[in-house]
Amino acid sequence: MPTGVILALIIIGLLVLLFGLSALLIYSYAVRVAYRFFGRPAPRPPVDRSPQHIDQSTIFGRGQNWFYSNRMNVLDWQMTAFDGIKLYAYFIPAAKKATKEVVILLHGFNDMPSVMAAYAQLHLEKRDCHILIPHLRGHGLSEGNFVGYGLFDSQDIVMWMQYLETRLGPDLRIILHGRSMGAATALMAAGSGIAPRTLEGVIADSSFDALDTLMAYLMQRKYHLRFRPFLMLVRHVTLKRFGFPIEKAAPAEVASRISVPVLLFHGTDDELVPSYMSDNIYNRIRAPKRICLVDGAAHVMGYNAAPEKYSSEIDRFRDSISDNEWQKLIGRRPSYETDDE
Fold first, then answer.
1. pLDDT of residue 241 exceeding 60
2. What is the mean pLDDT of residues 61-73?
3. C-beta of residue 245 within 8 angstroms of C-beta of residue 34
4. How far is 91 from 106, CA to CA, in rounded Å?
5. Beta strand pairing status for 86-92 and 75-80?
6. What is the C-alpha to C-alpha distance for residues 334 and 341, in angstroms, rounded to an integer?
7. Domain 58-210+249-324 class?
8. Share of the chain residues as helix, strand and coil, in percent rounded to the nearest 5
9. Cβ atoms of 294 and 305 closer than 8 Å
10. How many Cα atoms occupy the beta-carbon half-sphere of 201 within 13 Å?
11. Nearest of 253, 252, 250, 249 to residue 281 by alpha carbon
């Protein structure tokens, strides 16, 4: 065989080998990215314990400290999800057992469920109500090897609402209040078409509009990856490894199907989930709605940055859904738009 042919075959073989190694490295990196986004962020603890140190410089740290100081007054509930995994929740009963008002607080990605205690305090200061703080799948004491990002969690929350009805009786008045991933969960539960009629309203703090657009934004910001086919590869890996269709985790897509009032919060300095994502959700909601942008607040820090404003917005929201006049309208509901200030 001529030397030139042998040399050409060697070069072709090296190029094929190089291409194969490059493809393997890209695929391996896509797997790492998929596990970074969807893998359980922390191992499931054998027991629920207070953190050894709680930073009380924020309102959320002080809320956590209050929660663990009163841990004996908090009940632990357990439920089996639609796919067989065990889910857990904290339940804080109202002072009056006959109370029908319930607030379900939904934490974000890699949050401890107890971080929602600050919001529990906020609601309890306003009205006597039951508080439920679910441990979202893949978090806290709940089972699950991957994160649900609202797609799976929204089904869990519908089941929790049904579970509440079996424990507390019918005619409940439920408000969902979530932050970040928990906000997306609340919106997707409300727009699922299977939420019980006991759902009265949704408070969504710093929600993403669609998981795939959020992932593209974060990959560009954190990893400097603008190659869209790489995101498609991550979507393939996620579907194959976790059975998770990323494109279906999209609160904005179901926002038009929400039939209860919605209050949106977002910080203007949110670099993790940009505030325009709440704008996108807001523009698609047809039910009574309001959006509150907190100047200078980072991701999920609106309540900490402007506690009085945050509290007054919730007062206004709860007063509006307590007024049942709009329920008497047939086929439409009055506007609950942001005032010009």
1. yes
2. 95
3. no
4. 13
5. antiparallel
6. 20
7. alpha beta
8. 50, 15, 35
9. yes
10. 24
11. 252
Cα angle value 283/286/290 (rounded, 5°) = 65
Which has the closest alpha carbon to 116: 129, 100, 135?
135
Average pLDDT of 221-238? 76
- Its pTM stands at 0.89
Distances from the Cα of 206 to the Cαs of 75, 173, 289, 337, in angstroms? 28, 24, 15, 18
Of residues 209, 199, 164, 179, the one with CA closest to residue 117: 179
Residue with tokens 């969902």: 176
Percent of the chain having pLDDT more than 70? 86
CA distance 201 to 204: 10
DSSP 3-state assignment of 133? strand
Q: Tokens 């329920």 belong to which residue?
A: 327
- For residue 131, the cross-strand partners are 92, 103
pLDDT of residue 181: 97
Residue with tokens 């909601």: 285
In whole angstroms, what is the distance from residue 213 CA to residue 143 CA?
27
Q: Is 188:281 a contact under the CB 8 Å cutoff?
A: no
Please say whether the beta carbons of 148 and 156 come within 8 A: yes
Helix, strand, or coil here: 21? helix
**DSSP code string of 180-248:** THHHHHHHHHHTSS---TTEEEEEEES--S-HHHHHHHHHHHHH----HHHHHHHHHHHHHHH---GGG
Q: Are the beta carbons of 40 and 145 closer than 8 angstroms?
A: yes
For residues 32 and 30, give the distance between their C-alpha atoms in angstroms, rounded to a whole number.
Answer: 5
The domain ranges of the chain are 58-210+249-324
pLDDT tens profile 179-204 = 999 999 999 999 999 999 999 999 99
User: Is residue 255 predicted with pLDDT exceeding 60?
Assistant: yes
